[in-house]
Amino acid sequence: MTRDAAIAAALETLTSGRFKADLARRVAMPTVSREAEHWPDLQRYLDDELAPIFARLGFEQRQFRRDPAPGGFLLASRIEDPALPTVLMYGHGDVVTGVPEMWSPGLDPFVLTERDGVWYGRGTADNKGQHSVNLAAIEAVLAVNGRLGFNLKFLMEMGEEYGSPGLADLVAENRDAFAADMLIASDGPRIGRAQPTIFLGARGGLNIHLEVVAREGYHHSGNWGGLLANPGVELAHAIAALIGPTGECLVPELTPGTIPDDVKAALARCTIETSPGDPALDPWWGAPGLTQAERVYGWSTLEVMEIEVGNIAKPLYAIPPWARARLQLRHPVGVDTDAVLPAVRRKLDAAGLHRVKIVPATDAAFPASRSDLQDEWVRFATDSLAQTLGQVPVILPNLGGSLPNTIFTDTLRLPTIWVPHSYPGCGQHGADEHLPVSIVHQGLAMMAGLFWDLGHRA
Ligand SMILES: [Zn+2]
Asked: Separation of 17 CA from ligand 1 center, angstroms?
């Protein structure tokens, strides 16, 4: 029995049509976690879809509930020998809303449809297709080898698209149940459609809300201009004090200050790839002196998300009484998030903008995470994927977006190895979500090879 046989067994699920049938059945379950009428579907996904597979593969199963999570959590464990390394895996079975009216003619979010080598359907990319690849690869290795040769715990969440409520508490309260040597999971995109990728963390996200409130009511600009301060002008200067005219964040404390050498070296191999339908890039925008990959993955961006002053649809020719803006900072590890708002305050005060208030942000902040590029399990996974692919995968120190990854890196102290089976143009969270069959093919081979190698370490 060989590594090649395990990979062949995983790929056979694709050629036989079994993988597609399994995924079609999963996509047909409308597990929309933000719509209460679908909460019974969340439980059905665990009980009817996943539990039988894990039972067949010899996993012990435990379900957890945590308020206010809309669905349960399933932890399936196959402990072959406590002396062997333990892998924790993660996936989510819930999806965002279908919005069928936005999909192309002939496509339905909850009907898997194949066109031009891709499978359309809600969840094909995020995340049903991705965890289906991993489950099929586990099953293939067990079928060929009889055992994994390592311990495996698979956590399946049904509320990720609801903001993962309860997940952090669940893991913190059950550290022993989730204890492992590494996380291997699949979610989010590769860096490009034909670029197999490992990413090791995520940037953090933090919102900064600014407000200038001068007085009640609007006042005639001719009679009062020059006599009354204008909150719109003050807010514009506040934004200009924080962000330069070509998008550079002007508050040093909001950036990592420097990009570590190993992160820089990894990013030197990353090229930003756009897909048809993506906007054209603006290479003149962003932090100066950095590559585009460094700007998205290695540095911070401070963006204006919304500005509100007066009512442009109903002009009053008056000085507005207030103005407000919502800014968002995306940052890699290396930014002290407790120091962010005080630094913004100092910058505004230094510009004389004492009247611009920083009001508490009502939206959630996400911490940044990044596993060590030199971690032995990261190298192990990289070597394994390279052997399967015949090429070294792209190693991304972290995603540009955010993930609840600190639950694994900080709470459980695990190196986190994300092997995404999707790509940036997949349409997740929008219309025409899809998964290229070529990525499924590569994913099945990579994961079967990786699981085989984990069980056959020298
Ligand atoms: Zn999602």
From this structure: 26
